[in-house]
Amino acid sequence: MELWIPVTVAAAFLQNLRSALQKHLKGRMGTTGATFVRFGYGVPFALAYLAVLHLTLGRPLPVPNASFGLWAIVGAFAQIAATFLLVHLFAFRNFAVGTAYSRTEPAQAAIIALLLFGEGIGWSVIAAIVISVVGVMLISVARTAVTPASLLTSVASRTARIGLMSGFLFGISGIAYRQASLALASSLPHPDAVMQASYTLVVVIVIQAVAMLIWMVRYDPDELRRVVEARRVGLLVGFVGATASFGWFTAMTLQQVAVVKALAQIEMLFTFASSVFVFKEKINALELAGCLLIVLGILALLLL
Question: Whose CA is closest to 240, among 29, 88, 23?
């Protein structure tokens, strides 16, 4: 089994856990603070991973270049913007539509990578991506009044446009992180995906934390106070979030972003399993169909 596969599955599981932990913060702080926690409290753990690789395991540090710096900045701010748009969707009555469209990220990432870098993927991989994306979209709207038919006709709605833009920006951030990490390979004695990913993570997460910290100090100091008061949960969110990001960055260094993101749809299965087996919620036909499609898409992806 290729390394990127178990790394992606582990990262998806940790991301699901991080999201669950962040929900505990929503009642104690606003969107900005809850978003900052994953970055700000993740910095020390990202630094710790890099220190272990370099100081304990003796892996050489890469030397950043202009290409790395450009893509790291693009990825950092694209991810912040995508996250804000996704959270903003919850202010709309039919937020499920936008959330469903945001899940088109793997398909959008494939198109972006093809247009910008000529990274083509086979028709079989495209089919696997489409199947899993449709499955995720079905689950996203399964408990609302939205139907698959109305979902298709709502593509011009405001929430759909915001969702698509969120997915687009998440796709941009993933591709930017991959390009930043790959740009470091030439400065090492031999390519080291783990070290390249760790170094990229540190730079990106510091950029994000500093940018959001400056924003809160300038425009929302009360939110910063709430972030400090929630430091116990915040540190746990930061640890899980940084570990998940380390996994994402490693996987995307080893494999094309669209393929990694397609497998990452397994996160929805983790979320769904939690709601059914932990919270004892009943499932409906659309949710079951969505889960089956995700499983089918993932199996197709792994068997190619």
Answer: 23
